[in-house]
């Protein structure tokens, strides 16, 4: 039996849910299935028909208001006026590819590289995170002369041929590359009896040794530093450092996938990897850098990049176009100008404190963990045994949806609520979210 995708199928609409829908929603789902094909997925048993957004809020076709606690793509908030204005202004002037000179791509590159460690001093641009990670894998292979890539058990890094081959979260219907090796995620909730840094470094070394035994040369380790698809696993600051040392000691590079933990989201640092005091060889980003406008980036050490760029020309037709760069500039200016890193830290800490009151109240809340505005709420049927409760998690997500709060689940068991709102999420939104969680848990655990 084909295993479902943990990120695509866990909280998704299925055909058997259609009978319970109102006529309008059912008609839309049928048109979608007919026109878009079977690969697409909708959230929720009762899909949401959204028509408008502003900041951290969304409205459906009936005018109902929702609190968005999931969408990091609109990183600084839906329809942010700074992005709208910047894109509109540039659209009125020019939009073309990067084989002509233009100031925006240069100005942005200088600004974004200034936020990174000085060793990372080169920038390249694409349209999606998948493309950025695809290129990163090609560079890792050029640098190392090897092909082997290590990722975690439920990692998701993209949908291209190369990146889907290192994305086990897509499910067994999408085969992994024969040169991909998986390590167990650094789950401090279930690995609380070991030094997580030592344990994870040893897991990396085991997979490098396995590659060597099978005649595969190690190229690199690709990871999102908060291990979001593995269940939101921030861990203690610095625990990742020993694993990166093992990677370098074995001739590979560390690719930090910052599509989700980057751009001030973790609060403690601007970049997720910086929580661990490490310098990646490559950093990749995705659409959150442009608040949803198709733009992504790859930032690298020049010596690592040279192994690829000195021999292979690279051209991404509209990667880094002036309109996308205008959006990225606006996002960065808002993050810095409005001090959203500190905002994320402060609001995230208070939100975690409030969520821990639910942990005290309900035995089914096994763990609350996170960094800044990236939080995991793990649900269990037995707190002592830490038994995952996927059914409760999915029922709670549906209850939240009907109470006007949108989120979803993550992790190998599908039992971790992934709370990752736009950075415009405010202190006053905490009561709405925690209140909805309280009502849902109260009803579902009677």
From TrEMBL:
Coiled coil: none annotated. GO terms for molecular function: pyridoxal phosphate binding; transaminase activity. InterPro entries: Aminotrans_3, Aminotrans_3_PPA_site, PyrdxlP-dep_Trfase, PyrdxlP-dep_Trfase_major, PyrdxlP-dep_Trfase_small. Keywords: Aminotransferase, Pyridoxal phosphate, Transferase. It comes from the Bacteria. Its cofactor is pyridoxal 5'-phosphate. Belongs to the class-III pyridoxal-phosphate-dependent aminotransferase family. This is Aspartate aminotransferase family protein. It comes from Gluconobacter sphaericus NBRC 12467. The lineage of its organism: Bacteria, Pseudomonadati, Pseudomonadota, Alphaproteobacteria, Acetobacterales.
